[in-house]
């Protein structure tokens, strides 16, 4: 009854109605005492994150006003929220989930998600590590291609993003979930990636020299972290006897968000003999040769 009353209160405040069959709702309010707040609160008094059961539910945003209170409501499916939080694609959703006030959670789904993020172990840790590694590798390769072509500013931009993903890996390795303000999080850890960030951004060397230096460090970082960060992929490849095509891997729920990055990871792992590529005479695409499949 108490949860129902709270949900009704939020409905009244936001000027929006939604039925009590939603899986959960979180309210994030303006708080002048907090140094960093979600960008979703910009020009709004509160954000309401509403969780729905439908996995294919589109991300719906509504703006409402009741009196002088402006509210931004974000409606999202459970699967989409899990994907966004794990992938780090939407830091604002993570802030709302972790720092907001849970006002409707009859099945305990939101509290369970919070608990898993705070504990950060097992499958969730493996998934974050792999996704960050895949993006780290992708941006490293892009930066390397740009600098080879003489596009120094583009190379700088890509290697800066590569360091961002490397920093998220470093945080996950110590058993903490990577927060949106990642550089503030790694600052106290005295890690090599933070030193590289400073080297890239404030060094007196030329921009090209800085990028080349950091790219060398990134290459070493990729080699040293590859095995540990790819446990998720190894487990997927090992989950059946048959080898996997790239299409099948991209259809897997744990890899579906890595359409651009996964091919690079697979080829890198093959080159390091950590996985194998195989072909079959029975697996021929007309006019395209034999399909490549991957296995351990």
TrEMBL record:
Domain Nucleotidyltransferase-like: 20-127
Every YgxA-like substrate binding domain range: 130-225
A matching Pfam family: YgxA-like_sub_bind
Annotated InterPro entries: NT_sf, NTF-like, YgxA-like_substrate-bd
Source species, domain of life: Bacteria
Official protein name in the record: Nucleotidyltransferase-like domain-containing protein
Organism: Paenibacillus odorifer
